[in-house]
From TrEMBL:
Xylose isomerase-like TIM barrel domain location: 93-269
Lineage of origin: Bacteria, Bacillati, Bacillota, Bacilli, Bacillales
Organism: Alicyclobacillus fastidiosus
Protein name (Swiss-Prot/TrEMBL): L-rhamnose isomerase
E.C. numbers: 5.3.1.14
Keyword Signal: no
Gene3D superfamilies: Divalent-metal-dependent TIM barrel enzymes
Length: 409
């Protein structure tokens, strides 16, 4: 480390010791935080108005893995990549798995896609037409098979199913069909596999969505069994929703399976994590760390086995830098949450000291964790500034030879 950062870190360590924080534990936790990146985040995407085509975007799933490998090399935090089928459809999934391993990665969650075919316009697993429901379930089962071939342990489910008008469809029948489809898919899982059930309050359905909120996803998962859990996509809530409360509730029920991290100002904006709502991210981590100290082993285990994933779609941003920025923002908020002194907070809560407890949480958010992140990255032999390292690496210039026209969809 340079002289300046050495001094800053020494001071930081002293300050945290005084606050009763075990800095070695903090460092271990920070190093241990792994976040999965989505294959589709490396491709071109856009809004319903325009997809801007960028030079150097991957032309196939293998090139997406190449880009994801660079993000992992620079951050040390992203060893797995989520795939979306058929966006990442290949002839030989064994080859995809070997390729991932050859660039230092593993395949993470497999995401079935039952929303982009004409057949699914009025619903997939909730369609009134039994043949379309069968087709959708068959795709879910095919994805369980893909999981076996790529060595994945998470099936990540999101359904676009919904309606636009009152009376358009029979809501309770659809609820039952959805549960039947999930139950059949659940039966196909191996014992090491999790089913993660994602919800979203609207879009593309503007009147109702079959899995609209965490309660519906929770109920579906609870009926299925222990391998089914809820996935919280931070962008899938109405503005003002207390997402960290949902997180704490699901943790207490042993049903929080994973996250899709992203930022939103209005709806499912899929923007860089922590760009508009860093305090929310910090408070989510606060709830998770609080649960990891629970007396109930189920709550502790749930908190320790969360699948952290990014779900972003980069419409105007250069893809790899956007991913690096997101990882850095997650690490920053996690580092801050690690500085919360939970004994202090709990003692203040027990005394009903409203402002004292609020201060004990917020003051951790207000700390500068740059010296800590610098020290941890350096100790791992990683660049202290991964963004700068990327921009100076020449990789962006190198991939320009791919030309224009790669796409995630
Ligand atoms: C739906 C969603 C879901 C999809 C992804 C591309 O809005 O969050 O996770 O799989 O976007
Ligand atoms: Mn998502
Ligand atoms: Mn989404």
């Amino acid at each position: 480390m340079g002289q300046w950062s050495d001094r800053a870190y020494a001071l930081f360590e002293e300050q945290q010791a005084e606050r009763g924080i075990d800095i070695e534990w903090v460092k271990g936790r920070l190093t241990g935080l792994k976040v999965e990146t989505p294959s589709w985040g490396y491709g071109d995407s856009g809004t319903r108005f325009k997809v801007f085509k960028k030079v150097g975007v991957p032309r196939n799933p293998f090139e997406k893995l190449d880009d994801a490998a660079v993000v992992h090399q620079l951050t040390g935090a992203c060893p797995t990549v989520a795939i979306h089928i058929p966006w990442d459809k290949v002839d030989d999934y064994g080859e995809l798995r070997s390729y991932a391993e050859s660039v230092g990665l593993r395949i993470g969650a497999v995401n079935p896609n039952v929303f982009q075919e004409d057949d699914y316009m009025l619903g997939s697993v909730t369609n009134a037409d039994p043949q379309i429901r069968r087709k959708a379930i068959n795709h879910l089962l095919e994805c369980v098979d893909v999981m076996k071939q790529v060595g994945s342990d998470a099936l990540s489910l999101w359904f676009a199913d919904g309606t636009n008008y009152p009376g358009q469809a029979h809501l309770r029948r659809r609820k039952q069909w959805l549960q039947e489809a999930l139950a059949e898919t659940y039966q196909a899982l191996s014992s090491n596999m999790k089913m993660l059930i994602e919800y979203k309050f609207f879009e593309p359905g503007f009147y109702h969505t079959d899995l609209a909120d965490w309660g519906m996803a929770f109920n579906a998962a609870a009926k299925l069994g222990p391998q089914a859990e809820v996935l919280v996509d931070t962008g899938h809530h109405a503005p003002g929703t207390n997402v960290e409360h949902i997180v704490s509730y699901l943790l207490d029920e042993g049903k929080l399976g994973g996250f899709h991290f992203n930022s939103r100002k209005y709806a499912d904006d899929d923007l860089i994590v922590g760009s508009t709502n860093p305090y929310e991210l910090f408070l989510i981590f606060y709830q998770i760390l609080e649960a990891s100290r629970d007396v109930n082993p189920l709550v502790r285990e749930t908190a320790e086995n969360i699948a952290y994933m990014i779900d972003q779609s980069h419409s105007i941003e250069p893809k790899i830098p956007a991913m690096i920025r997101s990882i850095a923002n997650i690490q920053t908020q996690y580092a801050k949450a690690l500085l919360i002194n939970h004994d202090d907070v709990r003692a203040l809560q027990a005394k009903n000291d409203v402002l004292g407890a609020e201060n004990a949480v917020r003051s951790a958010f207000e700390m500068d964790v740059t010296p800590l992140l610098t020290a941890v990255r350096e100790e791992q032999g990683l660049p202290v500034d991964p963004m700068r390292a990327f921009l100076e690496s020449g990789y962006q210039e190198h991939i320009a030879s791919r030309g224009i026209g790669g796409s995630s969809w």
